[in-house]
Amino acid sequence: MAGRRDEFPRDLRPLGQVQDSFIVATNAEGLWLIDQHVAHERVLFERHLHLRRERQVEGQRFLLPIVVELKPQQQAAFQDIAEELGANGFEVEPFGQRT
After folding, report:
1. In the structure, what pLDDT confidence band is assigned to residue 5 with cuts at 50, 70 and 90?
2. Kind and range of the H or E element at 87?
């Protein structure tokens, strides 16, 4: 199946739904079975990517912060991905030697 919205076939004609989970559709290429839940997850993911490109990702804070103790190897991995976590709406910061 095509990944981007502009690549999705415009000529799909829905025929029905199976077990409240799949959309059955057809076009010149043949029969399509579309998993509604996966399609919805893809829409949410694409929306997140768009917001991320526009630097508009919003995080949601916990009422109380969660303190996590990290092993040295985990601290190194955290340093590698800290910027990526922030870009995706996670607010994380070192809080002491191993937290």
Report:
1. low
2. helix 72-87
Tell me the one-letter amino acid at 30. G
**Tokens representing 79?**
């340093």
In this structure, are residues 32 and 12 in contact, taking their beta carbons and an 8 Å threshold?
A: yes
CB hemisphere CA count around 57 (13 angstroms) = 19
Structure tokens at 44: 């949410």
* Whole-prediction pTM: 0.66
Q: What are phi and psi of 71, to 5 degrees?
A: -75, 160
Residue 22, Cβ density class (10 Å: 0-12 exposed, 13-18 middle, ≥19 buried): middle
26, two tokens: 């057809």
DSSP conformational letter for 49: H
